[in-house]
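Weekly modeling sync, notes
Attendees: S.R. (lead), two postdocs, one rotation student

Agenda item 3: backlog of single-chain predictions. S.R. asked that every request posted to the team notebook include the full sequence so nobody has to chase files. The rotation student volunteered to paste the first one in as an example of the format we agreed on. Action items at the bottom.

Example entry:
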Amino acid sequence: MTEKNITPAINLHNDMPNELSSEEFQKYLYGWFQDRGLLTELRAHLRKQMVNVLKDSAMGHTVATQQKQSLSPKVQGINLLIGEFLLYHNYYYSLSVFSTEVPAISVLPEFPLGVNNEWKTKKWRFMEKDMWDLLETLGIARESDFGEKVYQSYYKTDTEPLLTSIINCIKLTNKGLPPNRSCENLFECSTYEEWIKTVGELLQFNNISTPNIKDILNTIVNLVETERKRIKKEAVDDLLQHRIKLEEEFTKRYEEQKKKLKLVTNSLEMEKTKVLNEQTRKQKEVDQFSVKVLKHQNLLQDRYHTLIVRERDVNKKEYNLKQKEECLQTQQQRLQNGFDALYQEQKALADLQKKVQQELNEHRGKFNVAFFDDIQKVMNGDQESKESENVELSAEDKEEMCQKELIVQLQVENKALQNINLEQRARIDELTERSSLLLRDLESTQAAVNILSTNNSSVLTAPPLLPPTSYTFDRNSARSVRSGGGEDGSRVISPTTSREFRNLGNWREVKRRLPPRRVSGFSSSTSDEGTTNKILQEARDKLRRLEEESEEVDRHYQRFKLKRAQDSFTFSPCFNDIGNAQWLSNLNKDKFGTSSVMEYIPQHEFTIRKDGSRSPASNLDEAGPSNVQSNKNKKTTDAVCKDSEVTSISSGLDLGTSGVSLSHVDSSEEKTTS
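Predicted structure, as returned to the notebook:
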């Protein structure tokens, strides 16, 4: 067996110290025995062993001999009943003492000593033969009812000792016997016959003879009868007197009640008349009130119908407001998209201006270099042709012809550059004007949307839509009417000069002075006004920047013209042959190609006659450099036209929408200003 399988007799707790003193160990052991119920058994066992040891002594034998001689069978039976009673209830200590003094109870078993024992679960009992012997010794017969009851109680229930069973059966038997009658029971009888019977039993219980009992009973009956008659007669007399008194009292009370009833009836009649009068009055009031209620009900019904009509009107107005709000939102989105597209166009236009300026600078530098080279080559060629052909043309005529041709070419180029500049400035002014219109439309739309979102219950009276403003210009002027790219209305091209552009503000002031449309039902807050003023200030700043940029472009163009004029007339070369001028222009085409500037220059071709005069060439399809470049010029011109069309299409917006929203802008601006 391993140490793990061994269970200690005493469980040592964790909080128990390792070393205990003798007193502490004794206290702990005493508590452990007491908790498990071993202390009483241990005491009884030790006492029994001590008594048995004392029995073996000389004094013990003398006491035992004397006790055996003085015991009778009846006493021994009672001792056995007492010993079994103590054993059944686990009175071991008392049983040990009792067994030392009564040695005849040795028939009982030795009581056990232990914690876990089957003896505690199964009690010891007498055998059936021993039980009947004890009962017969005590005077209880086997065939009697009392003995049968004791037997049934002891063996059938199996929960009580024999002594307890005998006592319980005695109680049950005594309950079945009739109780002793006393004098007090006489007063508990409810009938006369029962009272006579109780008296006879009482006399018989007191050992009185039967003849005397009969005489006593007859005498008692006679006395009782005479007393009953006397009491009955007195009761009848009392009853008659009481009846007379009751009748007198009844008549008296009847008269009183009759008088009271008469008074009550009179009061009830008066009350009834009052109630009837009150009822008639109340009925009249009810009729009047019903008439008033009917009138009020009709009035409420009319008001209800009017409220229904108003509710329908309000719902209709609310629906219209929602439709207007959706329209304004879509318009705002469209204006925002147009504003973004316009911003992209402005950005592209600025890039295009930079690119054109760079191309002009590059062409000017290349033209000057090539011009000097060509003049040198022409001068060398003229000298060779003089030596070979001996042409008798004066140097002054050749120089004059070259200068005239160069002047014509430069004039045409200058005019083309002016036209391009005018178109670019017109485009800038147009975009500026459209940006201002879009900004105003965007501001008005945002203000209307904010007011609609804050005041849903207010009524918005939309202004009538203004038709788009249309202008007609001549084809020869810088302003022109363009269509396409989704623009159905006329587009206004801004003035060409910076002075006219400055006067454009007057036109805006006129537009602002248009009669405002009424917008009723709005209640704008200070935050909305601040936002509108901020947007207007940003728009004014943008317009101011655009004006400054346009003036800057104008100044650059004027400088470019002056430089171009100075560079063109710096040199005055001499040409010996007139035909070389045409070759020079073709040579320039071969070198630089056709640009946006050169595409506006008309191509003049001259032929040299034998007599020295010049005339326009009749056939333009002759072989030469100009014929080679004619196809290139045509392709370049087509490409430039396509680019201009794409630009006009991409930059086009619906000016009709801007014209429609202009009234909103004017009204919102006037409201903000006021």
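Discussion: group reviewed the output briefly. The first helix runs from residue 22 to 35.
Action items: rotation student to repeat for the remaining queue; S.R. to check formatting next week.
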